[in-house]
Amino acid sequence: MVRTLTYGALIFLSALFVAPFLWTLLTAVKTEAELVTWPPVFWPEDWRWANFPESWAKQPFGTYLWNSTTVVVLSTIGQVFSSSLVAFGFARFRFPGRDPIFVLLLATMMIPWDVKMIPLYMEFNLLGWINTLKPLIIPAWFGEAFFIFLLRQYIMTVPMEIDEAARMDGANAWQLYWRIHLPLMVPGLVLVGTFHFMNAWNDYLGPLIYLNDQTKYTLPLGLGLFQGRHDVDNIAIAAITVILCLPPLVLFFFVQRYIMDNALGSSVKG
Prior knowledge:
By secondary structure, this protein is an all-alpha fold. The chain folds into 2 domains: 1-49, no CATH class; 60-265, Orthogonal Bundle (MetI-like fold), CATH 1.10.3720. It contains 14 helices and no strands. The protein has helices at residues 2-28, 32-36, 51-56, 61-92, 98-107, 113-127, 134-137, 145-156, 160-168, 173-184, 186-202, 205-210, 219-229, 234-269. The two termini are 30 Å apart. The model has no long low-confidence stretch (mean pLDDT 88).
């Protein structure tokens, strides 16, 4: 009985999360007549898949997609590499002030992005990066406190005897990081990459602040511009929204095994 109630509650909660996306998808394939019908039509009679290419052609979404892909791919690579490298340094090297520096690094997580927004804009403006994709890419190559903390804790679970054995075989610090710890961190790296991908792909405020030229807009910013110009075209807005949601869904489909393994491993270690 308890198991039945648990499964029923999980199915109900899952339906609540899936319902908005399902409604958006069904709206995207409806006709105008079905959209304005009262009472609302939940299941369209004729699935109009042509709404997707027609909506895509109303603005240069291909350019927006290229910009978003460039930002997401380059920043994710930089985030994974830099965060893992810094985490390796904090986990395996002993140097004066290591612990206070690490505490200071963690303290930066308490600073809201809204507080840093104006200083960052002034800094990027001084560097001449405004209206370019650099402010959305280059900062990721310096790591992020939460990801560094996450990967450091992951490395701390690796026995020091592995490092000592590798050093006896002549391995230097870089070889320890690249050949030993990086392969062992794959589940953690996938988790970090997924989190950063989601943040970068859905980022709206960053591009809104730093970008002025529409040819450099990312997909979320392009969708906002499209919605402002076509605020009554709900079918087109729904179609572009569905397309915008597809890459994160596809990514999660391929990496969910790593995420679940990482969560299971953490629970067992705890």
